[in-house]
Amino acid sequence: MFDKAEIPIECSNCGRKTKKTVAWLKNNKAFTCGCGTRISINASQFNREMKKVDKSVDEFKRALKRFGK
Ligand SMILES: [Zn+2]
Questions:
Q1: In angstroms, what CA-CA distances link 40 with 5, 14, 26, 32, 58?
Q2: How far is the CA of 32 from the centre of ligand 1 (A)?
Q3: In-domain check, residue 15
Q4: Separation of 38 CA from ligand 1 center, angstroms?
Q5: pLDDT digit string, tens, across residues 7-36
Q6: CA 10 to ligand 1 center in whole angstroms
Q7: Overall number of domains in the chain
Q8: For residue 33, what are the domain limits?
Q9: Inside any domain, residue 40
Q10: Which of 14, 16, 38, 57 has its CA 20 to 30 A from that of 30?
Q11: Per-residue confidence (pLDDT) for residue 1, from 0 to 100
Q12: Taking 70 as the threshold, does the pLDDT of residue 69 lie above it?
């Protein structure tokens, strides 16, 4: 269900953040930044970002529950 969530991947060369969807990240181990630097997807960074997504989904669900009452 998180496949459409976008995770920002930071370029180690220029610092530009490129957003990639979770579905894309699952199928790719690296991408090329606009500056030409090839970035390998860092699993720990990816997991950290995924936790942020999980947290925001939890908050969203809580907000929905409040709204439903
Ligand atoms: Zn770059």
A1: 19, 15, 13, 9, 29
A2: 8
A3: yes
A4: 8
A5: 888 898 999 999 999 889 888 888 899 999
A6: 8
A7: 1
A8: 6-68
A9: yes
A10: 57
A11: 63
A12: no
